[in-house]
Amino acid sequence: MAGLVPAMTEISVPIPREISSKKHPKTAMADINPDLKPILEMFAAQLKHPNVSSVLKDWKSTISKGILHFGRKEPLDKDIDFNVLIYTDLNPTAAKSGKRITLEPTLEIVGVVSNRKLAHEKFRYLRNEMVIVRASGRWDYYKNEGPLDLKMGSEVTVRLSNDTGPANRAATAEVLKLVGKLCFSWVVVNKMTSGAN
C-alpha cells in the first residue's frame, strides 16, 4: 500500500471577532495569537498587491474570457508557499419581469499556505494545503474599486495528517509557529524593500 496518503485532520483556530469590530486595527491585532498575527498581516499585504488589483480592475476582460477565479503565489521557503486565491460568485438574480438578470458579484478571498511535502486525497482549495485563512468582500464594478466590505473569516484552519494522534493541538501550534515565522520574515523583508511603514 505504498503511496497512499494518510487521512487528514482539520483543526480550526478561532480568530477573535475584535478584528472586524469597532476597535482600532492595531489594538485589535494585539489581541490575536502572536503566531497568527504575521499570517494575517501577510494575507492583507497580498490583497494589496498590484497584480491582484490589476486583475480585479480588468474585470470586463476576465469575465468575458470566463475567468472567474484566479490567484497568485509568494514563496516563503523552498517547500512552502503563500497562495492567495480569489473566487468570484456572480450571484445572479432575476428581475421581476423575468427579462433581465442582475449580477451582484461577491468575492471569496482565501489565503492558503501550501507545502510541497504534503498531498491530500481530499482538499478544499489546494492538494498540498497546510493553513487556510478566509475572507469575503465585494468589488464595486461601477466605480471599479475594491475589495469593499472585507470581512475576515472567524477561524484559521490547519490541515494535519491523522497520524499526529492525540498531539493534534501541539502539532497545530507547531505548524502555526513555523508558518508565522516564515510570514513574519516575508513581511519584514517586504516592508524594507518596498519602503512601507
Characterization of this structure:
This protein has 197 residues and is α+β, with helices and mostly antiparallel strands. The protein has one domain (8-17, 31-180). The chain contains 5 helices and 8 strands. It has helices spanning 25-30, 36-47, 50-57, 59-64, 168-194, and strands spanning 8-14, 69-75, 80-89, 92-94, 101-103, 106-115, 129-140, 145-161. The strands form 2 sheets. It has a 6-stranded antiparallel sheet. Strands 4-5 form a two-stranded antiparallel sheet. α2 crosses α5 (168-194). The N and C termini lie far apart (53 Å). The model is unreliable at 1-7 and 17-25 (pLDDT under 50).
Give the SSE map.
Blueprint: E1 8-14, H1 25-30, H2 36-47, H3 50-57, H4 59-64, E2 69-75, E3 80-89, E4 92-94, E5 101-103, E6 106-115, E7 129-140, E8 145-161, H5 168-194
Helix pairs in contact: 2-5
Short key terms for the protein model shown above:
197 residues, alpha+beta, 8 strands, 6-stranded antiparallel beta sheet, 30% helix, 35% strand, disordered N terminus
Give me the Rg, rounded: 19 Å
Helix/strand order, N-terminal first: EHHHHEEEEEEEH
Give the strand line-up of the largest sheet: 1-8-7-6-3-2
| Straight-line N-to-C gap | 53 Å
What is the arithmetic mean of pLDDT? Answer: 79
Give the fraction of residues assigned to helices.
25-40%
- Main β sheet profile: 6 strands, antiparallel
- Count of folded domains: 1
The number of helical runs is: 5
Please count the beta strands (DSSP E, at least 2 residues each). Answer: 8
Report the portion of residues in β strands: 35-45%
What is the general shape?
Answer: globular
Q: What would you call the structural class? A: alpha+beta
